[in-house]
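# step 3/5: fold
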Amino acid sequence: MAKEDNHEAQRCECEDHEESSPLLQVNESNICSKGDTTKTAEEYGWTADGLPVSQGSVIGEPIGRNQWSSGLFSCLGRNDEFCSSDLEVCLLGSVAPCVLYGSNAERLGSAPATFSNHCLTYLGLYFVGNSLFGWNCLAPWFSYSSRSAIRRRFNLEGSFEAMNRSCGCCGSCIEDEMQREHMETTCDFVTHVLCHTCALCQEGREIRRKVLHPGFNAQSTVVVLPPSEQTMGRK
């Protein structure tokens, strides 16, 4: 009996020691902190991935589109630090749209001869359209893709999305993002056909505000000259 009583006393002491162990206290504090975190997550409406809904960073949540810096019919641009560039864009769009389109493509792409390839192709379509049909009807089929590229690159609001936001009558026919992009591309094409010069000018104003000309990205070249010929003098 005495041995059994001693064994029971030692076991009780071990249990008391385990309950008073600092490691267990730390684990209990961690469990309590995790419970508080769960409560905070429920309070702020966090998702299962651990991202708060209120911050708008949840994967799959739609991101708001940016607005164009100027309207489609803002021919003279805006009264800001780019006003002289806006006047240049307006002049080029009225007199030489092929040059304006080539300049826009040059700022978007980094391939060599981008300006000449786009400018000459546009110029050929311009002359063929005016010769056969009496107006520039062929070049918009070639140039509307630049508007789609600018819209995607800078996350700009498209014409279809703007129409849906204003009247709300077009959103019911769109089921996914792919269909919405198809509708936006179609609207880009219609904009270039009906308001071709205004569309080129709006794209020129937008891209000049956000992309530097490739010539400004060129690195300076350091020329190292060889030392001049040295001769040893005789005494």
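# step 4/5: annotate
The chain has a mean pLDDT of 76.
# step 5/5: archive (pending)
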